[in-house]
Fold this sequence. Notes:
Strand order of the largest sheet: 2-1-3-4-5
CATH architecture of the largest domain: 3-Layer(aba) Sandwich
Number of domains: 2
Strand content: 5-15%
Number of strands: 5
Shape: globular
Radius of gyration: 18 Å
CATH class of the largest domain: Alpha Beta
CATH topology of the largest domain: Rossmann fold
Oligomer: single chain
Order of helices and strands: HHHEHEHHEHEHEH
Structural class: alpha/beta
Distance between the termini: 54 Å
Amino acid sequence: MNxxxxxxxxxxxxxxxSKAYIDNLIKLLESLDHEAVAAIVQxxxxxxxxxxxxxxxxxxxxxxTCGHFVNDFHAGSxxxxxxxxxxxxxxxxxxxxxxxxxxxxYENVFSHQLExxxxxxDALVVISASGNSINLxxxxxxxxxxxxxxxxxxxxxxxxxxxxxxxxxxVSTLQGQYGPVEDIHLIINHLIxxxxxxxxxxxxxx
Length: 206
């Protein structure tokens, strides 16, 4: 049985459902692996120091999180003067995505974009609730073969990507809990983007 569905069955009215949903998110946040968050932050910093790029890939709701991640770094740089991070969202160009899906198959839409572009100094972040999306697995395999570091923001049990990525941060939930996983992935985005833009801005103004 789907946990979110259980919360609805137990609450029935919007006020009770709202509280139950938030209480569930709080429990998930309390179990968040802060060591993994710190490791991802440090990887972003090393990549930036080495003048590398950080690529993002995801499907569905996770694709929007990729765009949100890139936006928050760029917007944070404008607001706080902490620029310098080079983030690239592989999901945002609809023309490229549809052309690649049509010509080389949807399973190759991200790995194909990385060909001839990704370098050992770069990093790839894949965002996935299930951790089992074939196009993300192929992108991670390709990036690692080029010597780039890989990060997985994942959900459920982490899926195959948990074992494939160099760093994995899993929002551990029952299978199918897309909403709570995607909620917390956005919180992780805000944690990382605000910390790094504030830190870089502070250094630049010392």
